[in-house]
Amino acid sequence: MAIRFEVLKECRRTGARLGRLETPHGTIDTPVFMPVGTQATVKAMTPEELEEIGAGIILSNTYHLYMRPGHELVEKAGGLHAFMNWNRAILTDSGGFQVFSLSDLRDIREDGVNFRSHIDGSKHFITPEKAIEIQNALGADIIMAFDECTPYPCEFEYAKKSLNITGRWAERCLKAHRNTDKQALFGIVQGSTYADLRRESARQITSLDFPGYAIGGLSVGEPKDIMYRMLEVTVPILPGNKPRYLMGVGSPDCIIEGVMRGVDMFDCVLQTRIARNGTAMTSRGRVVIKNAEYAEDFTPLDPECSCYTCQSFTRAYIRHLFKAGEILGLRLTTYHNLYFSLSLMKRIRDAISSDCLPEFREEFFSKYGYI
Question: For residue 151, which of 200, 205, 221 has the smallest C-alpha distance?
């Protein structure tokens, strides 16, 4: 097996759990947040900075790396770890979400998907086997089965047809996977926002005995209470001795609620995307640093944060950088947002260890502004 996962403790009052995930490139404490490095780079961050803030695993995107520079080139470079000089763990998604988000540019068939590149309009055809071939070449520690991510809203019949295709594709991905001793292949549960379809998909995918399971097709526009409900009907069906990964979810409230429902892994572009637009995550909620109210604010982005940005610079200075169009502004805010999220995961793990996660949730939400 490419990975080993051990549950160290389960919260007595929620579904949360502490775990340890061993990969070929290091051991990761769970629950964990994975910064997103879509094109073999976490935007505005160096690998050294990611290590400095405690990132043990990052996510890269199969579709984008297939488009450029191409998986063959990455393989020639020695794989994704060598190519981007990252010595810790990497997870690659299958590219399914990106392919299916192309909408008018793609055509879904039983054997795979025809689509046009968002870059130059060139024609491509990806099958489950091709998705695995690409990921085998990239060499990430954890790779994902090719699936269809349905949009929201989605008709019941289409969602059912989609989950069945996803199930058949999952079987084909397992047969195509070659590097089983170096790369762990996760199956993906779909089913849109229909509880019975989620259960059906979970049973179908877990019957294939993947080393880990992802929950896809959520955080695509549905209300958060529906997402939480889908987790509540899906997670209990997933094996307790394997990692559970909620794809594309990274806001503090959704992370905490996901952890309380038994999720172990999260990823999202939110942290880096809003940072580039001048928004910081803080213990008291979001701070839009470009606002005029911070022009003479000589306090840190977050007085409770111990990251390099908050220990070294003021809101007034960072606002000035954004107003002046200086790259350092978005770099400092990105650094802070990722540090904030990784620190949040540490605090969540500590709360689970101390059997006080519900109290931590209430206190965090009160300060952050969710209550």
Answer: 221
Catalytic residue among 93, 147, 264, 302: 93
Read off the pLDDT band of 110 (50, 70, 90): very high
Burial environment of residue 151 by CB neighbours within 10 A (0 to 12, 13 to 18, 19 or more)? middle
**Predicted pLDDT of residue 173:** 98
> Coil, helix or strand for 217?
coil
Catalytic residue among 141, 264, 267, 302: 267
Q: How many CB atoms lie within 10 A of CB 179?
A: 16
pLDDT exceeds cutoff 90 at 239? yes
- What three-state secondary structure class fits 7? strand
The CA distance from 151 to 352, in Å, is 34
Distance CA 224, CA 152 (A): 12
147: left (phi over 0), alpha (psi -120 to 50) or beta: beta
CA angle at 82 for the pair 78 and 83, rounded to the nearest 5°: 90
Active site residue 225: no
CA distance 248 to 36: 9
Cα(157)–Cα(146) distance, rounded to whole angstroms? 20
Query: What is the rounded CA–CA span in Å between residue 109 and residue 155?
Result: 18
**What amino acid occupies position 16?**
A
Torsion region of 217: left, alpha or beta (phi above 0 gives left; psi -120 to 50 gives alpha): left
Adjacent-strand bridge partners of 115: 106, 124
Q: Is the overall model pTM greater than 0.70, yes or no?
A: yes
| Distance between CA atoms of residues 226 and 39, nearest Å | 31
3-state secondary structure of 4: strand
Q: How far apart are CA 333 and CA 275, in angstroms?
A: 5
Q: How much is the average pLDDT of 183-201?
A: 98
Residue 70, helix vs strand vs coil: coil
Residue 77 neighbours by CB under 8 Å, 6+ apart: 83
* H/E element, 48: helix 47-52
Any idea what the Cα angle at residue 343 is, between residues 339 and 348, rounded to 5°?
150
Alpha-carbon separation of residue 139 from 46, 142, 203 (angstroms): 20, 9, 29
Reply yes or no on whether 93 is catalytic. yes
